[in-house]
Amino acid sequence: MEDKGSDRVSQKDALARHLGIRLIEVKPGYARAVMEVRPELLNGVGVTHGGAIFSLADIVFAAASNAHGPVALALNVNIQFLKTTAVGDVLTATAREENLTRKTGLYRMEVRDGKDELVALAEGLVYRKTK
For a tag site, which of 13, 96, 115, 125 has the least CB within 10 Å? Predict the structure, then answer.
């Protein structure tokens, strides 16, 4: 794991810890994390809550964009939920940088289940703070 801005995400993100999200790999412009679906992550109809899936995608987004060093803050994130998951499923999210400028970064995030089927697809734009 990179030692730059990604530490802000991996060590200080209380929500990631609360949800059981574990960052597996982080490097500038890329991150991968896993989360096991637990009963407390289900919504009212018994499938994984969209907020939990979104949070998993958001964590890899933050890690990939902050791994460059300068603080990167989300300007916009959109997500499409494509498949339901349930208790016991292990979800893996990846974020890949699509475009990077001095002030912004565009990222694509995928969340997949244990069968490598696409659960959600997201896109996020960050603002890169400069000193």
Answer: 115
Tell me whether strands 22-27 and 104-112 are parallel, antiparallel or unpaired: unpaired
Q: Are 119 and 83 in contact (CB under 8 A)?
A: yes
Instruction: Tell me which residue range forms the domain holding 51.
Output: 6-128
Q: Is the pLDDT of residue 9 over 60?
A: no
Residue 58, phi then psi, degrees to nearest 5: -65, -35
Lookup: tokens for 43 = 């919504």
In a domain, 28, yes or no: yes
Taking the model in full, what pTM does it have? 0.91
Q: What is the CATH number of the domain that holds 11?
A: 3.10.129.10
Residue 92, token pair as written in the block: 């893996």
What total of structural domains would you count in the chain?
Answer: 1
| The pLDDT of residue 103 is above 90 | yes
- 92, 111 in Cβ contact below 8 A? yes
Q: How many CA atoms lie within 13 A of 8 on its CB side?
A: 15
